[in-house]
Prior knowledge:
- The chain is built from six helices and twelve strands.
- By secondary structure, it is α+β, with helices and mostly antiparallel strands.
- The chain has two domains: 203 residues, BirA Bifunctional Protein, domain 2, CATH 3.30.930.10; 39 residues, SH3 type barrels (Roll).
- The protein has a seven-stranded mixed sheet, with helices on both faces. Strands 11-10-9-8-12 form a five-stranded antiparallel sheet.
- A hairpin with a 3-residue loop joins strand 4 and strand 5.
Amino acid sequence: xxxxxxxxxxxxxxxxxxxxxxxxxxxxxxxxxxxxxxxxxxxxxxxxxxxxxxxxxxxxxxxxxxxxxxxxxxxxxxxxxxxxxxxxxxxxxxxxxxxxxxxxxxxxxxxxxxxxxxxxxxxxxxxxxxxxxxxxxxxxxxxxxxxxxxxxxxxxxxxxxxxxxxxxxxxxxxxxxxxxxxxxxxxxxxxxxxxxxxxxxxxxxxxxxxxxxxxxxxxxxxxxxxxxxxxxxxxxxxxxxxxxxxxxxxxxxx
Length: 254
């Protein structure tokens, strides 16, 4: 079933996110579309039923079939944000997605640092925050979100590591209502971060941080995941007791 822009508009509770909305049956990547958008207001959203070139962190492909899930990008004005705040903004978006998805599926969910939402060992949502700069100034920020909503089956590569809200909840969800819930939660946490800073976000992410206390590897760093630093950096303690703070990387169980 295709996504209905008019019905989505009637369900929104946001102040600005999605009040300008572009719904597409199919596209390459909503983040790429957002990067090319001109003369659109702060909070403009591009939502696609399917993507042919969806991507996640570090250019990894994000599987984006039609008719089951949600793939969207939110454009923000860069005012009040800097390149240094992008990692914590990613955590704020991930927190909003986790809170919304938890409300939708009725099960506790975790944030897998820095940009995934997981149920147990299975990923059900991802966040990709990108920016457009003019010199040292951020002109706009693009928040890309992919959520597996109603997918019942995954291909062989994804089956061991992915899940969907419907599989967790045991029933299909209304995608348009789910989208409205997601936008509301993301706007709330982004606004809180911009107004109050990392202190309003990081402790709440840490409270639902996946794999805390377990042995992990992040690129070439191995050790026990201790938690998060006040700025959102990942704290990993190696076998000799030394602690490293990581601001980026791909986290996996060791």
